[in-house]
From TrEMBL:
Keywords: Methyltransferase, Transferase
Every Tellurite resistance methyltransferase TehB-like domain range: 9-115
Organism of origin: Desulfonema magnum
InterPro entries tied to this protein: SAM-dependent_MTases_sf, TehB-like_dom
A GO biological process held by the record: methylation
Domain of life: Bacteria
Recorded coiled-coil stretches: none
One Pfam family per UniProt: TehB
Protein name (record): SAM-dependent methyltransferase
Keyword match Glycoprotein: no
Recorded GO MF terms: methyltransferase activity
């Protein structure tokens, strides 16, 4: 949606520094995936895409913000930036050995994520929970927040290797996150 692109481009334009460290959960679990193609859903400024490309994966990095994608897409030959709206984006079937989704939620994608993996492929998914009213660093709109156990239930047709719901400290703030690692069987 054009409105989302403008909003996210504005955010990224004004951002002074971008994190280059990958998400902890990616560092912890990426080795479980067979080498091959990776899909980074809502890649942002590419911290996970670049890390995975360095580790030998070919990465399709999808995001609506061309400003964010421009910051990193030329940094690695194994990263393929795709500027697209995930409200309508079609994940190719049985294409990926690894799909990662961090700090982003689009429930429409749940079945397509599973279908997008090859058998034996790994999903690493971590995003914000509703948490308590005191959570600061999370989206304000409830549509973008997971309910308790929702992520676990969404992927029960896969073999769950790891699942947790926990409070995460982010600089001075905190939020609650659900984290899942699963393999397609
Ligand atoms: C909180 S950031 C997360 C970025 C990265 N995954 C991370 O963990 O740092 C959310 C990302 O979702 C992207 N986004 C928001 N709505 C989108 C949409 N409809 N289609 C594609 N990307 C979208 C934004 O541009 C932004 O980069």
């Amino acid at each position: 949606m054009q409105k989302d692109r403008i909003r996210w481009n504005e955010k990224y334009k004004n951002k002074e520094t971008t994190s280059v460290k990958p998400s902890k959960i990616i560092e912890q679990f990426y080795r479980l995936a067979p080498k091959g193609r990776t899909l980074d859903i809502a890649a942002g400024t590419g911290k996970n895409s670049l890390f995975l490309a360095e580790k030998g994966f070919s990465v399709d990095a999808v995001d609506i913000s061309d400003v964010a994608l421009k910051t990193f897409s030329r940094c690695h030959s194994r990263v393929h930036a795709i500027c697209a709206d995930l409200d309508t984006f079609e994940i190719p079937r049985e294409r990926y050995s690894l799909i990662v989704n961090t700090r982003f939620l689009n429930r429409r994608l749940f079945p397509y994520i599973r279908e997008g993996l090859v058998t034996g492929g790994i999903l690493i998914f971590e995003s914000y929970l509703e948490g308590t009213g005191e959570d600061y660093c999370r989206p304000s709109c409830r549509d973008y927040l997971l309910r308790d156990n929702e992520l676990l239930h969404a992927f029960l047709s896969m073999k769950i290797l790891f699942y947790q719901e926990t409070k995460i400290h982010d600089q001075k703030d905190f939020c609650h996150m659900a984290s899942l690692v699963a393999v397609k069987i």
